[in-house]
Amino acid sequence: MKEYGPESIRNIALIGHGGSGKTSLSEIILYTAGETNRIGNVLEGNTVSDYTSNEIEKQISISTSLMHIEWNGKKVNILDTPGYSDFVGDVKSAMKVCDTAIMVLKSAEGVEVGSEVSGKFVNEFGLPSAIIINKVDNEHSTFDETLEKAKQRLTNGAIAVTFPITQGVTFNAVVDVLKMKAYTYGEAGSKKVTESDIPADLKSKAEEYRTELIEKIAETDEVLMNKYFEEGSLSDADIEKGLKSAIIGRSLSPVFAVSSTKAVGINNFLDFMAAYFPSPVDRGGEEGVLAGKDGKVLVKPDPKGEPVIFIFKTISEPHVGELSLFKVYSGSVKAGLDLLNESNSKTERLSQLSVLNGRNRKDIATVSAGDFGAVVKLKDTHTNNTLATKIYLLL
Fold this sequence. Notes:
Number of domains: 2
Largest sheet: 8 strands, antiparallel
Structural class: alpha+beta
Number of strands: 23
Helix content: 25-40%
Strand order of the largest sheet: 18-17-23-14-15-22-19-20
Distance between the termini: 29 Å
Shape: globular
CATH topology of the largest domain: Rossmann fold
Radius of gyration: 21 Å
CATH class of the largest domain: Alpha Beta
């Protein structure tokens, strides 16, 4: 895998109520991007992110898993979080290190208790967000109603970017209101997507959604608002610039119609994510207390800066020992580097570095600002399923 600068990295966390399909969603994303060659299934216990014996037996996510893909010239780090309240510490630690929170809702059930709990964390951490309305292939799917509930109970910035052409068992196509085209998906596993014109009976609905999207973009910027009033619309360049700003500013939360099991709507979501979701650079940096500095300082994601990493999770792996998952806030780190644990003033030496897709590890020489990695067998550094607070600075 090539090395990506922080401006080309997208860090997302999949959050939401238990059973909303986050693990199945991460599974089809990995397959669509070519990171895996088969689609795992929660019921069969062979998914990339739910790999511990307890997760396989109970068929739920118990621990946050770290994965990654490459898409349209971007590296995407994916945190698949548990949906049940018993494991809320894992959700909060993922929120600390992601740049966009993706709320996954079930199209039939809508906004559930776990959705609202996760939604509060999104606001607590001030995160840009998006919403995936999953399981639109359910026979009781109610996409439009679920979208309205999301606006009322999660964020009034929820705006549809894709919506289903048909719902229920026949769901195989979406309308993309940004591209103003229809996209029909082949069987799951085929990776076949066909672009076509929007069906005549859905053109007015698509125009309504597109107008709503453009108006929301215009509201975020006085120049764009004036231009919208004068010209009645915005240029593609204005939409592109304004859309990203609106997401970063948290006034707009794009919504996507998806079936993770039928692999419908996935490409539209990934294309949008690569183009419009914020990078670590867009987020501006992270405040923290560092050795030799007075008070809190802003650590910017500069690959040439002083190395600062944040350990957000430690897991015990058979035949490996303790594995520490980290995000690089600044600089670049490589094996053999000595770092100071800011919370206990002890020195740690980074040994073997790797990138993860669930339990699968791949050795890597360097991890740079904005990116994620893992290191084995740190002596005096541990997290405890509450919000991690381990920050390191180069000695």
